[in-house]
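#struct-help
A.M.: can someone run this one for me? Single chain, 287 residues.
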Amino acid sequence: MTHSGPDTLLRPDDGDALRQVLRQAHDRSGIPVLFGGQVENTQLSLSQFIGVRTAGLRGLRVRAEAGLGGRVLTTGRPAKVTDYRSARSITHDYDRPVLREGIRSVVAVPVVVSGAVRAVLYGACRGPAPLGDRAAEAVADASRRLAAELVIRDEVDHRLRLLDAAQGPADGGQRGVPLEELRQVHAELRRIAQQVPDSDLRGRLLDVAGRLAPPSAAQPVPGPPLAPRELDVLAQVALGCSNAEAGRRLSLLPETVKSYLRSAMRKLGASTRFEAVVAARRQGLLP
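D.P.: on it. Structure tokens below:
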């Protein structure tokens, strides 16, 4: 059986996330023109637009150090010009599409993940009054939110690559990842899933995590099913985490962790944490 790679298995189009943060920035700030794109092969490719009137910017590829976006791409820091036409701090490689759009004041903000610029977001206006600090902060906030989303998606991809290796060759040979690492991947996938705002992605991520737990050969003990958070806590406990450590990983208070653990133990008919983990493994709920 051929296994799909992590990118095709779960990762949504990052362009959709970019478009979403631009829309949110527009709704919150009222900036008349917003656009941006992802970095591909060291160049910025503009792909998402709000409020543009011409097609000149669509599909534009911005080189490093060229124009305002190229400067941001090179420095990894936000940059702003109040009058694009007369600005001396940037090159004017892209004057034709920018000026045809009527843009006068513009701010560009990088989306930085693990030290690399992954995208650039722009906010702009056409009138004589330049963009203020509030508008610049709205674009910066959109950049931070997109960076946080990309961090989560990258981590998911990393974990799924481990899963892909763990599934091993198609002929049923030995798994490529030790059992203990599989358990860590399972717990991390469930933890990351709780941070994903996209409910569809969260559901698919939990489904992938569930595939790491082998089907149980024994008959499950009759009783109420474990709630998702109860299973999240048990997955952390199975790694040897204390209540406090599990709480830090899951962004829960220790008392809340203790409550979920007690409930899981009751449902599994276990009197200790260890018995609860063993019972959950016997039922195929944990790897």
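A.M.: thanks! Strands lie at 33-40, 43-50, 61-62, 79-81, 105-113, 116-125.
D.P.: also worth noting: The radius of gyration is 24 Å.
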